[in-house]
Design brief:
alpha/beta
Length: about 170
């Protein structure tokens, strides 16, 4: 139950719980219309993976810099605050580079899909690609190649998107 003046805490439904518990699939996806909570779920899923892989590096990717800054990273920070994490105490956030470092050792890097080649410098345990249908197909190719963090207990990618036209997500 939420406190007065607080944003409501929304429970995960059955399908979301199954995705949250899944550790034996490399790729997961949530495809639905606007306003169905894909981004909120993606942020919660990503934080769950950070907690399960506390020494790992991971990526949050959005198709544009503006979407990364205003929606995806904001949703991830909200998921952190919802879980009781405090900036400065449990993690630090470099807002100019979109890098979050947790005291336990995990590092989360926000990347724009506008330049897929920038993804090449990372070895990740997991990645969340928000609005995947709006990203170039090369984004997926680069992300798949980066899933090699040696400290990860398991490696996964989550794609959250709307069903927009014929693209690599549809295929």
């Amino acid at each position: 139950m939420s406190e007065p003046g607080e944003a409501p805490r929304i429970k995960l439904h059955y399908g979301q719980l199954r995705l949250m518990r899944c550790t034996d699939r490399a790729e997961l996806g949530v495809v639905s219309g606007f306003g169905y909570g894909k981004t909120t779920f993606g942020a919660r899923w990503h934080l769950d993976r950070v907690e399960r892989n506390p020494q790992s590096e991971s990526i949050i990717l959005a198709p544009t810099h503006a979407l990364l800054e205003q929606v995806s990273m904001e949703a991830f920070l909200n998921a952190c605050f919802e879980r009781g994490y405090q900036e400065g105490k449990h993690f630090t956030f470099n807002r100019s580079k979109f890098v979050i470092k947790f005291r336990a050792g995990a590092k989360v890097v926000g990347i724009s899909g506008e330049n897929p080649k920038r993804i090449a410098g990372y070895n990740t345990s997991h990645a969340w690609i928000d609005e995947a249908a709006r990203c170039k197909a090369e984004v997926r190719t680069q992300i798949v190649g980066r899933m090699r963090c040696p400290k990860a207990k398991f490696r996964q990618r989550l794609y959250t998107t709307t069903p927009e036209g014929m693209n690599w997500v549809y295929e």
